[in-house]
C-alpha cells in the first residue's frame, strides 16, 4: 500500500512456528492499541467453526466490551485472556516512545507471543462503526506539528517532507 513509514525497510520473508490450541484452532489474537506508551483499547479476534470465521470485539483495558460493530461479532460473553494484564504491560514496553502503535499478541500454551507491531493499524483504511469510535481512538493521539507534516506527506503521496515549503496549516492570508 505504499506506506511511507516502511519505504526504507527492505522486503523480507519471516517464517514462524504455527501456533495452535489443543483443539487445532489458532489462538485468539489481541490487538493492543497503544498511544504515547499507554494501552487504551484491545481488539479481540478469534477464529471459530469449520469455516474458520474471524470474529472480533473491542474492549477497554478492564475488558468492558464496547458497542462497536464488527463483520462477525463473537457470541457473548467473551472472557479476557488469563494473562491480559501482562500482555498489556508487554505491549506498552515494546512501543514506549512511539506516539501510536498496535501490538498483536497471542496467549498459547501458557506462553505469550508477539505477532505484528505496526504504526499503520489496518493500513489506516478500517472504518469503525459507530463513527464516534474513530473519534475515541483519535482522542488519545497527540499529533505534534512535525507529525502533521508527515501526515500531510502521506496523504498527498509525496515522499519528501523537505520539499514542502508551505503546508496548508502554515499558510497565512496576505
What does this structure look like?
The protein has two domains: 139 residues, 2-Layer Sandwich (D-amino Acid Aminotransferase, Chain A, domain 1), CATH 3.30.470; 31 residues, no CATH class. The protein has a five-stranded antiparallel beta sheet. Strand 4 and strand 5 form a beta hairpin. It is globular, with a radius of gyration of 19 Å. With 174 residues, the protein is of the alpha+beta class. The protein contains three helices and five strands. The N and C termini lie far apart (38 Å).
SSE inventory with pairings:
Blueprint: E1 29-35, E2 38-48, E3 53-59, H1 84-94, E4 100-108, E5 111-118, H2 132-139, H3 145-156
Antiparallel strand pairs: 1-2, 1-4, 2-3, 4-5
Amino acid at each position: 500500500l505504499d506506506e511511507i513509514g516502511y519505504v526504507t525497510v527492505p522486503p523480507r520473508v519471516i517464517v514462524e512456528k504455527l501456533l495452535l490450541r489443543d483443539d487445532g484452532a489458532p489462538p485468539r489474537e489481541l490487538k493492543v492499541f497503544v498511544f504515547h506508551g499507554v494501552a487504551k483499547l484491545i481488539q479481540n479476534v478469534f477464529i471459530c467453526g469449520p469455516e474458520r470465521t474471524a470474529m472480533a470485539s473491542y474492549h477497554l483495558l478492564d475488558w468492558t466490551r464496547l458497542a462497536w460493530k464488527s463483520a462477525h461479532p463473537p457470541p457473548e460473553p467473551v472472557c479476557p485472556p488469563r494473562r491480559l494484564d501482562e500482555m498489556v504491560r508487554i505491549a506498552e514496553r515494546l512501543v514506549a516512545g512511539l506516539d501510536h502503535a498496535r501490538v498483536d499478541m497471542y496467549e498459547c500454551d501458557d506462553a505469550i507471543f508477539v505477532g505484528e507491531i505496526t504504526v499503520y493499524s489496518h493500513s489506516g483504511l478500517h472504518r469503525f462503526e459507530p463513527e464516534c469510535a474513530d473519534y475515541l481512538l483519535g482522542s488519545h493521539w497527540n499529533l505534534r506539528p512535525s507529525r502533521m507534516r508527515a501526515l500531510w506527506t502521506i496523504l498527498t503521496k509525496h515522499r519528501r517532507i523537505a520539499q514542502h515549503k508551505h503546508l496548508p496549516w502554515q499558510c497565512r492570508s496576505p
